[in-house]
Amino acid sequence: MSLGRRYIPLPTMDVLRPPLVWAMGQCYRKNLSSEVEDGNQEDPEDTAYHDECGWNDEVCDSLILEETDSGFRYEMSVPSAYFKFIIGKKAETKRRLENETATQIRIPKPGQDGPIVILSRERRGVVSAKTRIDVMVDSARQRQPFTHFLSFPVNGQSVKDSFMDFKHDVLRECDGDRGLDDTLFQNSSKLHLTLGTLVLLDDAEVQQAEELLQECKQDLIGPVSKDEPLKVYIQGLEYMNDDPNAVDVLYAKVELEDESDRLQILCDRLVDKFVSSGLMHRDSDRVKIHVTVMNTMFRKDPSGAVIQAKSGQRGATKERVSFDASNVLRLFGNYSFGQLVIGQLHLSQRYSTSCDGYYQAAAVIDLPS
Fold first, then answer.
1. Is the pLDDT of residue 89 over 50?
2. Residue 155 C-alpha from the chain's centroid
3. 10 Å Cβ neighbour count for 363?
4. Closest Cα to residue 338, out of 161, 167, 184?
5. 322 near 246, Cβ under 8 Å?
6. Contact 35/4 with Cβ under 8 angstroms?
7. Spatial CA neighbour of 331 closest among 260, 250, 257
8. Residues contacting residue 256 through CB under 8 Å, at least 6 positions apart
9. Are 220 and 266 in contact (CB under 8 A)?
10. d(CA 128, CA 65)
11. Where is 215: in which H helix or E strand?
């Protein structure tokens, strides 16, 4: 045994089925290391890099590299907001990455945009550095507050009118119930189904998401919808926890008129497409199809684009105060908000409002009508 090292037993795992992660459209396999360096204290500001050091750089080596007189060169586009995660405190992360991959990594100066340039005598060094940067960026992306989200607007006039009647009736009939007031209700012009959230930090990423949405129109929307309208009923209330006396989110249920699963399949496949691209992270196996009508987080964010942050994610809060929804559910549990044809899929921008009261759209796809 070499000095300065200690060996620890590996956790039990199926070596034929190691953990996988998707990052920037690539799938990586996580191999557990059996060695731990003594005396190598982890810097709390450098956690992202250390977390990824156990990843084996097993990727399809299909990068197109520029050959130079001294080796290989590769430029990768990374939003400037992620530069700090690659550089690390006192540039320690960058130096460690360069040492471990035998590369030179050039990152634009603070306040400047531009590609990250990776140089090395060996092709494998460039590939390894690029792989690690991808995973570091992906890890950092998960901790950022979302900037955009995929949505189906369900704010037709008849649905809006029904929603406003619901709001007025609830406030009248349930007046005095704990925590219940008008700040809990969604903006009627922003009623929607959320498919998933995205962190898009520069124009290039927004454009990538727009192009991906256009691909979905041809590859997914037509075939899955069978070029038939998605006519839905919005009726009935559910809550997202197990105690009706302490509810954070109250939502309306959505069902297709023909009772098929076309809408569920479409939502799931759209999310699959964006997850595979690296622009979106999967929160569950299937999209929860629902229309949020009341949410305690609307108290702090009246924009109506609030989605509960994961623990540890920027934007997570412990100040959320539930409300008593027992009477709302008893009196309005089967409330009908009406029906409509879902006509568009939006790449919506958070904290925005368009001229029609809905969110500003970076891109819009029309659905069969």
1. yes
2. 23
3. 19
4. 161
5. yes
6. no
7. 250
8. 230, 231, 232, 233, 262, 263
9. yes
10. 13
11. helix 203-216
With beta carbons less than 8 A apart as the criterion, state whether 237 and 251 touch: yes
Q: How many CB atoms lie within 10 A of CB 318?
A: 5
Q: Rounded CA gap, 161 and 163, in Å?
A: 5
pLDDT at 303: 63
State the Cα angle at 180 between 179 and 183, rounded to 5°. Answer: 105
Model confidence over 213-234: pLDDT tens digits? Answer: 999 988 899 899 888 999 999 9
Per-residue pLDDT at 53 exceeds 90: no
pLDDT over 60 (residue 34) = no
Rounded distance, CA 309 to CA 144, Å? 10
> Which DSSP state fits 323?
B
pTM more than 0.85: no
Q: What are the tokens at 69? A: 């007189």
Q: φ, ψ for residue 249 (rounded to 5)?
A: -130, 125
Q: What is the pLDDT of residues 173-222, one digit of tens each?
A: 999 999 999 999 999 999 999 999 999 999 999 999 999 999 998 889 98
What are the φ and ψ backbone dihedral angles of 170, each rounded to 5 degrees? -65, -45
| Pair of tokens at residue 35 | 């060695």
For the CA atoms of the chain, what is the radius of gyration?
24
Tokens of 6: 């200690």
Give the distance, in angstroms, between the CA of residue 157 and the centroid of all CA atoms in the same chain.
30
Helix (H, G, I), strand (E, B), or coil: what is residue 332?
helix
